[in-house]
What does this fold into?
Amino acid sequence: MTSPLRQLRRAITGFILVGWCVLGLGFPIAKAETIQENKELLQKGLTIYEIDQELMRITEQEAKLQEELKTAEEQLKLAEASSAEARAHAAKVIRAYYMGDRDSLWALLFTIRSFSEALASLDYLQMILKNDQQALRRHTETWRQLTEVKDRLTKAQTGLRQTKSNYQEQRTRLAALQQEVDDTLAENKETAVQLQQQMLELNRLWHDKGVPMLRTYFQALGDALEQLPELVTSGSGSGNNLIMNGFNYTFQMSDRELNDYLRQKHELFTDMTFRFAPDKMTAAGSRDGISVQMSGSYELASRDDRRNGAFLRFRITELQFNGYMLPSTTIDALEKDFDLGLYPQNIASFLQVTGVKIEEGKLSIMLKLAL
It folds into this structure.
């Protein structure tokens, strides 16, 4: 039979165990929520910093476009004046031929009485014809220059409008994020100073180490990808990277081959691993306490300044630094500064890319003869 004292002990023990369970489950959950909230706040702080950097880049770009616009407007005035003068001169020449004014010059040939007069007349005729041709050519050239200046002016005006629109859009986004951060800090007055210090430290780490490291990676990656056709031409790949089927070809590469190739090109990539997954390529690595992660995909594109036009442009869909997402403004800036595209025609000038497919562990590029 259980004594009242033993029952009391059991009750107290049960109460303590329940209390431990509540404390043991409740505190970690609350702590996890706090950590997640703090990370979201730091994420917003990093995004604000990067948008602010983008606004500075836009401001510099706007100043450059303003200068280009001013120069183009000045050139347009000069080109219009020069074109008007050349047009007037050319009109006189054309009118002279149309009205028969030049016929009398050819009639001189029938009044020649000596060899010396013939030479003098021919020299005179050649001089006039040469001046006429120069006037017509000058008109054509000034018209071409005027057209080019107008095109530059139009592009500068369009670029300026787009730049101002982008600036306003990013400015609005920045203000909204800043308000969210201010509201969060106001709700956490006890830890506000500490959180602000953490945001500053994260931004400083990104600026001092993250940015230089990421740009170094992108520069090395762009240089290595430009030489990627070596896998075929040097035979350093698997030996069957280029598969021929009539007039069509397929360039195939596994992610293992890509990693081996990149590590041969630069020691940086010993700390980085690339992987092909369905419809995307990912890369992840860390060095000196800095971790980066990227994912993106290749798309068929064309550019006039490339032979055969078509190439494969790499579009970054996600970029992380130490677990924090970097905003689209950072991605856009990196894509402008570094070319991670693939140009299969570098394998052979007679090949043209027609498509691309990324699947688990493998990249396939479809090619055809550029006839």
About this structure: The two ends are 101 Å apart (CA to CA).
